[in-house]
Amino acid sequence: MSEHNTDTTTRSDTDEQSAEQRRSWTESSGSGTVNIQDLTKVYGDDGDELVAVDGMDLHIEAEEFVTVLGPSGCGKSTVMECIAGYLDPTEGEVLVNDEPVEGPDPSRGVVFQENRLFPWKTISENVRFGPQMRDDVDESRVASLFDQMGLSGFEDAYPHELSGGMQQRAELARLLANDPDIMLMDEPFSGLDAMTKELMQEKLLDVWEDDDRTVLFITHDVEEAILLADRVVVMTARPGQVKDVIDVDLERPRSTDIVTTDRFNELQRRASESIHDEAERAMEQAEGRV
Ligand SMILES: Nc1ncnc2c1ncn2[C@@H]1O[C@H](COP(=O)(O)OP(=O)(O)OP(=O)(O)O)[C@@H](O)[C@H]1O
């Protein structure tokens, strides 16, 4: 990551550092830490309550890439929305940079499976929207985001004129235009075809390697979770809690080729085993058997 590529630290030096070392580097930087403390979220009223998340604890270091795996309905999006400031916890709290989250903030950018681009605005207007609201448009930054996302020449196009992959790249550019410390990504690539998804994963890894950002990325895809992460958090079936945390000790920078290595397969097996029972329990819940 750029901050560490000082005169005395070459790119190849940093490439060889383990995920654990990466985390220890970032412990001192402070900006972008997330602390989830005893987080409980209950939906509904008296007599019709649903405990979505129950006493969840998780600490995420600044600049760490954490993926969250969990069965359907276990509370992944709920946790993310509490970090984003869209939802208030019922109990417990979320601290960002040691301060309680009290609402949405551009320093915490969110990407969903369905892009939230304004259909009536051009791609350029969409990307500039956040900075413009703060009267803080950096033209060279916007131009370099279009370049980085392979969108140059599409500035004046409308979202419906772009392919699904391009729309998600525009969504990423829109998010990055706000220069967030923390990127919250809720199954952002799950609606894409396999090849586009792979390209988007590589694009995201490039973006993350180049910048100093914390990423929390929700996915149902075990391979994607391992490929991207420093740590994979496996959640229990609802009510969601942390079941398991898997350290991904694969070298960086990574490309999608890494999925064929033995170590990758070991990690993938471990994550799949960890989630298997929870997925069964979630299915029983959905069928009303528990
Ligand atoms: N606004 C709401 N009102 C009532 N119940 C809700 C609300 N939002 C979510 N839930 C319920 O809370 C539980 C957790 O939902 P959440 O969307 O956080 O799970 P998830 O793990 O992200 O699910 P998925 O993987 O299917 O996207 C689910 O049972 C869901 O139906």
Notes on the structure:
By secondary structure, the chain is α/β, with parallel strands linked by helices. The strands form two sheets. The chain has a six-stranded mixed sheet, with helices on both faces. The chain has a four-stranded antiparallel sheet with strand order 2-1-4-5, covered by helices on one side. The protein has helices at 11-15, 19-26, 76-84, 123-133, 139-148, 164-177, 194-210, 222-228, 262-286; strands spanning 34-43, 50-60, 65-69, 91-96, 99-100, 108-111, 182-186, 214-219, 231-235, 242-247. Mean pLDDT is 88; it is low at 1-29. The chain is built from nine helices and ten strands. Helix 4 (123-133) packs parallel to helix 6 (164-177) and helix 8 crosses helix 9 (262-286). Bound molecules: adenosine-5'-triphosphate (ATP). Adenosine-5'-triphosphate binds next to strand 2 and helix 3. Adenosine-5'-triphosphate binds at residues 43-44, 50, 52, 70, 72-78, 238. GO terms for molecular function: ATP binding; ATP hydrolysis activity. This is ABC transporter domain-containing protein. Residues 1-32 are annotated as: Disordered.
